Amino acid sequence: MWFQHVLSSIRSRITLRLAIIAAVIFGLMVPSAILVPYHLHTIEQAARVRNKEDHNRLVEILSVILSEPLWQITPEIANISSEVVYSDPRVATIEVTTLPDRKEFIKNDTRRATQKGPFTSMTREIRHGGQIIGEVKLTLAEDLLQDSLRSDFRRYVTTAVLSLLLAVIFILLVLQWRLVRPVKLLMDESDRLANGELNDPIALNREDELGHLANSLEATRQALKRSFGELEIKNQQLLEYSSTLESKVRQRTQELESVNHNLEAALHNVNTAQAELARVERMAALGSMVAGVAHELNTPLGNCLLVASTLEEETRRLLEMVEGGQIRRSDLTRYATTAVDSTKLLLRGLQQSAHLVGDFKQVAVDQSSAQRRTFDLLITLQELTALLHSSLRKTPFILELDIPPDIQLNSYPGLLGQVFTNLVNNAVIHGLEGRSSGHMRCTAKKQGAFVLMIFTDDGKGISQEIINRIFEPFFTTKFGQGGSGLGLSITFNIVTNVLGGTIHVSSVPDQGTRFEIRLPLIAPGDKDEKDPLFKDQ
User: Fold this and answer.
1) Which end of the chain has less Cβ packing within 10 Å, N or C?
2) Are both 385 and 499 inside the same structural domain?
3) 443 pLDDT band (50/70/90 cuts)?
4) Residues 226, 231, 235, CA angle at the centre, nearest 5°?
5) E strand or H helix that includes residue 239
6) 524: cis peptide before it, omega within 30°?
7) Across 128-139, average pLDDT
8) How would you list the strands of the sheet with 131-141, edge to edge?
């Protein structure tokens, strides 16, 4: 109890500036404390892997170049040949023994006494004409590796500390300039309003949330001032015209006209806000698609990078064989086979990436604006389904399209795609929630100058108590759990007000939900209209 009281007292005394400073410092230090050791470990592991690969490559080179001198028993030539490898400062000793008698053939360890270690050794057999004639043992010292790791550690930690300090200073300066000072100004203005000082205007020339808040306070000031003025005027009018009924009726009529004008203005604001909500929903869906496309591109591009690095390694080995004069026909054949296979894999991955980017490019153009054009219904929904695949793949649910390829519409593919995306998301979040499997299906067929689209799922359905309210704004069964209640409301408005169609829903509990959308093949309105969501309503 005492501890909670002290904690509450401390919390109440923490100012906004202090809270921001603490949040910035902890927010930057915690990730740094986690990521810096991880990156250092990664750097060390990569360095050790490279050192091991170099060790293996050097001992392989020795086993090849010492084959002929060992067969001819010419230690002088063997010493000269091994000097190529011994020129590497990491090499501590090179020991060659003959087999099967295991006699020492050559030994070069002049640098061993000056190296600190630790040391690692690797042994390879020396063959000549398919016969094992000897063995080479190569020992490397890790002095240079340890020095490099220590240098990388100091450089990385110094960079991280300086970056952290600069980030903290910059963020605090920006927050002081863009948040703390404006908030204090708005607090002073709010206190002035509370004291009834309504003559001086409130102005904060900014386009962000604080600017909107200042505009709201200014609107509140104007409304209060106007209300007080109207109250004074009405009181004066009541005193002046209390004896004249006709004047009172006329005054009431004027007030009703003013109220009617205000209601019309409010209706226009509501329509504008509704259009803005539709645009925001569309852009949110586009952001989700961007994340999905990035996830899908990661696999083929990662495969291409792996294949390219493998091809580079094979090419480097081939060049080493050519430079060493040890190239063989089998080596060229193996390299050509590897190059052909790598090229095929690279082309396949890049073609897959290009196809995915092409689908997303068209969908992104449609989703980011409400431009009208002629499009094929099947192709448009296939592109959307491909972009939704990344999110649906994480679920046990299946989305199926059954649409003829000859349905052409002159309409708004971006808005129709938003309707389709909202229906899929609604089915996954509400209809199929908590199920181990599920199936969604979208069909379409022509009906004269119209097309009938039917979207069904085999989820838990919608109860009769709420089925008549699902198209109402802000109605959701996930209130407080991330649901906004705007998805189906926006869907209804797009279908009925922009696409010129109708939408009906039917459901049987535990047997799924069915949406029927009937759209004209040619949407109503001007065919050159840029964005129907923001037209005068």
Assistant:
1) N
2) yes
3) very high
4) 150
5) helix 209-241
6) no
7) 86
8) 104-108, 91-98, 131-141, 119-128
Give the residue with greater pLDDT, 161 vs 292: 161
Indicate if 112 and 209 belong to the same structural domain.
no
Q: Are residues 214 and 283 in the same domain?
A: yes
- Strand pairing class (438-447; 397-402): parallel
For 407, phi then psi, to 5°, come to -95, 110
- Say what the pTM is: 0.37
What are 377-392's pLDDT values in tens digits?
999 999 888 878 767 8
The neighbour count for residue 293, using CB atoms within 10 Å, is 22
Give me the mean pLDDT over the 509-534 stretch: 78
- In sequence order, the 6+-apart residues with CB closer than 8 A to the CB of 71 are 128, 133
Specify which residues 400 forms β-bridges with: 441
- Tokens of residue 24, six digits: 């910035």
Check if the beta carbon of residue 451 is closer than 8 Å to that of residue 409: yes
| Contact (CB, 8 A) for 416 and 407 | no
User: Given its phi and psi angles, is residue 21 left (phi above 0), alpha (psi -120 to 50 degrees) or beta?
Assistant: alpha
Structure tokens at 79: 């010493």
Tell me what pLDDT residue 457 has: 94
Query: Based on the domain organization, do 65 and 176 belong to the same domain?
Result: yes
Residue 440's Cα: distance from chain center in Å?
A: 26
pLDDT tens digits, one per residue of 213-238: 778 877 887 787 788 778 878 887 77
Q: Any idea which residue has 């010419």 for tokens?
A: 74
Contact 150, 123 (CB under 8 A): no
| Single-letter amino acid code for the residue at 90 | R
Do 41 and 169 lie in a common domain?
A: yes
- The amino acid that residue 95 corresponds to is E
H or E element in which residue 438 lies: strand 438-447
DSSP-derived secondary structure letter, 180: I
Domain containing 15 — which CATH number? 3.30.450
What pLDDT score was predicted for residue 367?
Answer: 46
Does 232 lie in the same domain as 212?
Answer: yes
Q: Which of 75, 55, 213, 208 is nearest to 124 (CA)?
A: 55
Range of the domain at 397: 367-520
Helix ranges (H only) for 442-523 are 487-493
CB proximity list for 158: less than 8 A, separation 6 or greater: none
Looking at the fold, whether 135 and 263 belong to one and the same domain comes out as no
Q: Report in angstroms the alpha-carbon separations of 397 from 150, 274, 457, 510.
A: 51, 31, 10, 16
| 4, part of any domain | no
Residue indicated by tokens 């480097």? 316
d(CA 193, CA 187): 10
Check which CATH number belongs to the domain holding 424 and give it: 3.30.565.10
